[in-house]
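2024-03-11 09:14:02 INFO queue: dequeued item Glutathione S-transferase, len=202
2024-03-11 09:14:02 INFO validating residues
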Amino acid sequence: MQLIGMLDSPYVRRVAICLKLLEIEFEHRAISVFSGFDQFKTINPVVKAPTLVLADDQILMDSSLILEYAAGIAPSGKALLPTEGTARLYALQLNGLALTACEKTVQIVYEQQLRPQEKQHQPWLDRVQGQLLAAYAELEKQLARAGTTLAVIGSAEVSVAVAWSFTQLMLPELISADNHPTLAAFAAQAERHPAFISTPQV
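2024-03-11 09:14:37 INFO prediction written
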């Protein structure tokens, strides 16, 4: 099993950390969708990261779908989501907010770094930035209300921490740790976990 993509992608890093937590063996191949486009295309013609290549050369795309597949092949007793009730709903809510934060960060970075400045559309940027701020404000509120700890790490906790670290790497001037103290402390604690340490984003 091979995981294709760069760890500076929050989606690739999310999958890699979760696979480690599930104790699923895999080989990571750091191929960029930009500088390694042609090489990536030979593996997956869609050129989407993360891509998971299975033993029979079948491929899966999209971090959430890959993790859904991984849950089905994980060793007995290993799970990254609560199975029912309020705990499952809460984990799904955190995952949704974290993935939205990743998406909006990527959109801003692409708009600012890949599109020529004279073609950037400020109303669009303002809208996306508002969505990003709202996602992190809601995550801060949810974590502060729940008093979430990392006694157990699942996909929701991974998603939140990976999203925060990614945005801090790419847009530190936009999302302040001072305005999100619970979230910043939560991510810092997660980054000290062995699965995170062995899967650095840079």
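2024-03-11 09:14:37 INFO annotate: Residues 85-113 form the longest helix (29 residues).
2024-03-11 09:14:38 INFO item closed
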